[in-house]
Amino acid sequence: MEKWSNNKAWLLVLPVFVIVAFSAIIPLMTVINYSVQDILAPGQKVFVGTEWYREMLGDYRLHEALWRQFLFSGLVLLIEMPLGILIALAMPKKGWGVSVCLVTIALPLLIPWNTIGTIWFIFTRPDIGLLGAGMNNWLGIAFDHTANPLDAWITVMMMEVWHWTPLVALLAYAGLRAIPEAYYQAARIDGASAWSTFLFIQLPKMRGVLTIAFLLRFMDSFLIYAEPFVLTGGGPGNSTTFLSIYLVKIALLQFDLGPGGAFSLIYFVIVLLFSFIFYQALQRVGKGEKV
Amino acid sequence: MARIELSEIAHSYVPRPGEESEYALKKINNVWEDGAACALLGPSGCGKTTLLNIVSGLLTPSRGRVLFDGRDVTTLRAEKRNIAQVFQFPVLYDTMSVYDNLAFPLRNRGINETRVRDRVLEIAEVLELTSFIGKRAAGLAADAKQKISLGRGLVRSDVAAILFDEPLTVIDPQLKWHLRRKLKEIHEKLKLTFIYVTHDQMEALTFADQVAVMYEGEIVQVGSPQDLFENPEHRFVGYFIGSPGMNFLECTIDGKVAHVDGADIRLDEKTAAKGLEAGGKLELGIRPMYLEVHGKPGENRVEAGVRMVEDLGSYKIVTLRLAGRTLKASLSDDQPVPEKRAWLHFPPKWTRLFADGWRIK
Predict the structure, then answer these.
(1) Do B83 and A189 touch (CB under 8 A)?
(2) Average pLDDT over residues A16-36
């Protein structure tokens, strides 16, 4: 058998290559193309090299949005990971309660994202929303997410936690269910406390699913758009203008395709970089090595 | 140190068991003497693991009592009993080192760190784990992992008995033998009560001084390996122990002769008389190695057809057909095997009679 005759196998890879090209490579190349040009009018463009990159990297509004984004994703992970694990631990292990819990918990995941924004917008409205009106009129606590930045943040966080903690809980639950009974029995015989059992059996055994949950929640929360856009539109002021909201403002509302393209690529690299770092770190933690 | 006594133990996984078939364990009375090496042998699903979990305290039996040295521990939780258990698959704390794994049961019981250290190093030495004591347990081979599981039991100086639930399932065949010998060695050194659950008769018979055979939720016989082989109390023991198992032939008794569909087999007088007395469904049982196969007719021989000969190297297994029933005989390598027709002799000394499954004594 000659080595060259095997090259026909490349044909089998072709369909995948075409699909990936259309779904990822071509759009990415288009964005790269925009990011190095100044498009003055259709058909009239000037090559500007790295000018847009330099401009966007120096843009203080982008810096603000970036720190806001990190704060948001950090809070999301800090709240959702432990909460999801707690919910998973509290869920029943057998009987009819399992299905009831699973369906109830999964409900927020089934709702379209902009609908979630709408639900929480109405829920927290100070005049007619159950939560908003309840806080203001019955409890006497002034709460208005359309006027007060802190209230806006609280509302966005509550919405995010309500929407996505179920994902962490479901993954953690699946990880817990996969632990063979013998581990718990051995722990009992070894006289381990509930906390030790959690620390030395449940948590290490859940490592795989929790890594996935962590990365998914980091990426998704870092890219969040629809829900805060519907809920606050980035306001009040710029207090909830996350990276994606700012990007849409530049690229679609102001139609600055060059800076928008450069911004997109910077955004993409940041997500990629952090996902990579987290993944490597989590792999090491699981193996008991120092990070 | 403890003598473990099971009194009228029955267990069901059904909340309100009615019929007998709902019981995983029917009625178990048994005593394991202090310091003995015992095996619990039986097919999958016969209740071995259930019984083991009752002894270790992971399960509370539906009925009956568990006594350690005469003290009732039936309701005592697993961590309060001085019992350790080794499971079918190595159970380790993945994130810990071998040292920390071994120290875990001691630290949980609040023992001070110098004492922990002495104890862990001592046990690691016994189990030949010293060379990788600082390594992570998760990366080791299956036999080392299983030794760590055992070590977590041995480190506790108060441990009276160690229970093994088919501990060699995941071990490579050539290491099995080594590990089994190690277990025996440890048993002799530490004089702990070892209870070893297995469905592998080879393992049970080589490991234990005393084997309890379980069948459908009951212990049908307790005895030495030799006892189980020569004097099975129940037809199941005869069938389960030995390879191939005991031959059984349904028969009727007339005087001191057993009739098996036209073939007459002479029994010893006492057995025949008791068989007549016992009634019920009577069966003749004989081990393949005691069944004599001859090439010529003779006194007390019955004619049979030779169906198949399997040569296993050091011995041969001959499949025979007697009065419409299949029998197996094992012959030594140098013994000639008759072709087509053979004459069988059932030595009365080794021919057992069973009534409704139980041996007539």
Answers:
(1) yes
(2) 87
* Mean pLDDT in residue range A177-192: 89
Contact B96 A188 (CB under 8 A): no
Give the single-character DSSP code of B136: B
Q: Which residues of A touch B136 (CB under 8 A)?
A: 287-288
A174: amino acid identity, one letter: A
Long-range contact pairs involving B271-280 (C-beta distance under 8 Å, separation at least 24): B271/B348, B271/B351, B271/B352, B271/B353, B271/B360, B272/B353, B274/B353, B274/B360, B274/B361, B275/B353, B275/B355, B275/B360, B278/B355, B278/B360, B279/B355, B280/B355, B280/B356
- Interface touch A190/B104, C-beta < 8 Å: yes
- Tell if the CB–CB gap between A188 and B58 is shorter than 8 Å: yes
Distance, in angstroms, between A195 CA and closest chain B CA? 11
The whole-angstrom separation of Cα B232 and Cα B280 is 18
Q: In Å, what is the CA distance from B114 to each residue of B99, B136, B174?
A: 13, 21, 37
Specify the amino acid at residue B338.
Answer: P
Q: Classify domain A59-286 at the CATH topology level.
A: MetI-like fold (1.10.3720)
Measured in degrees and rounded to the nearest 5, phi and psi for residue A41 equal: -155, 165
Residue-range domain boundaries for chain A: 59-286
Q: Which residues of B touch A188 (CB under 8 A)?
A: 58, 77-79
Contact B108 A182 (CB under 8 A): no
Rounded mean pLDDT, A274-283: 87
- The nearest alpha carbon in chain A to B163 belongs to A189
Q: What is the mean pLDDT of residues B131-158?
A: 85
| Interface pTM, i.e. ipTM | 0.79
- Condensed to tens digits (0 to 9), the pLDDT of residues A72-86 reads 999 999 999 999 999
Distance CA A116, CA A167 (A): 15
CB A169, CB A88: distance < 8 Å: yes
Token output for A151: 């209230």
Contact B136/B97 with Cβ under 8 angstroms? yes
At CB < 8 Å, which residues of chain A contact B? 180, 182-183, 185-186, 188-193, 196, 200-201, 204-205, 286-288
> B4-48: per-residue pLDDT in tens?
888 888 888 887 777 777 788 888 888 888 888 888 888 888 888
B268-B273-B277-B281 Cα dihedral, nearest 10 degrees: 30
Which spans in A147-206 are helix H? 149-177, 181-189, 194-197, 203-205
Structural domains of chain B, with CATH: 4-239 (3.40.50.300), 244-359 (2.40.50.140)
Interface test with B, best of A188, A189, A291 (most B CBs within 10 A): A189
The CA-based dihedral angle spanning residues B239, B243, B246, B249, taken in that order and rounded to the nearest 10 degrees: 100
Tell me what the mean pLDDT of segment A174-195 comes to: 90
